[in-house]
Amino acid sequence: MLKYVNSSVVFQEIPDEVTLAINISNCPCHCPGCHSQYLWEDIGLPLDTNAIDAFVNRYGTDITCFSFMGGDSDPKSVNLLAQYIHEEHPQFKVAWYSGRLRIPSFVCKTDFDYLKIGPYIRHLGPLNKPTTNQRFYRQTEDGSFEDITSHFWRK
To answer: Which of 37, 46, 48, 50 is packed most tightly, with the most Cβ within 10 A?
Structure first.
């Protein structure tokens, strides 16, 4: 079962979106230098369709996107929640920040509007550094994904 520890409305995680970033616990990646080591623990509240509906009721039109920050311990559940949001709350886009090197093959990538993949590797830097190993993708109209990682780099 997915659990989340906290959430916040953010403006930099997803380009051109007002995003509710949901921090999911029980992260199996354990990246050295991780800034959110508290998410390694299996703690928090259930993240299910009831929680999504509660977020929608709370934030309404104040947000445009949900972003699952983690969830690598149960990617199937992350995928099911993305499907639920698109079916029941189609006004919202859905993003997933995964620390894995690749999205598992059983996950339907087109259920996500945005995907960030890659573990944090300290000497390569975070997503906003041109040296990063992490990649950020946006789904295009034809269902393919374009790499827009450079949108995060400071000019």
So the answer is: 48
Query: How far apart are alpha carbons 31 and 120 in whole angstroms?
Result: 6
Residue 10 pairs in a beta bridge with 19
- If one counts every other C-beta atom within 10 angstroms of the C-beta of residue 127, the result is 19
Task: Read off the pLDDT of residues 128-142 as tens digits, 9 standing for 90 and up.
Answer: 999 999 999 999 999
Which residue has tokens 């509906």?
Answer: 53
Q: Is the pLDDT of residue 47 over 70?
A: yes
Beta-carbon contacts of 151 under 8 Å, excluding residues fewer than 6 positions away, are 15, 136
Is 90 exceeded by the pLDDT of residue 49? yes
Nearest Cα neighbor of 109 from 99, 118, 120, 117 is: 117
- Burial of 155 per CB tally in 10 Å (0-12, 13-18, 19+): exposed
Q: At what angle do helices 49-59 and 75-88 cross, to 10 degrees?
A: 50
Q: Are the CB atoms for 7 and 23 separated by under 8 Å?
A: yes
What is this structure's pTM? Answer: 0.95
Instruction: Report the first-to-last Cα separation within the chain, whole angstroms.
Output: 41
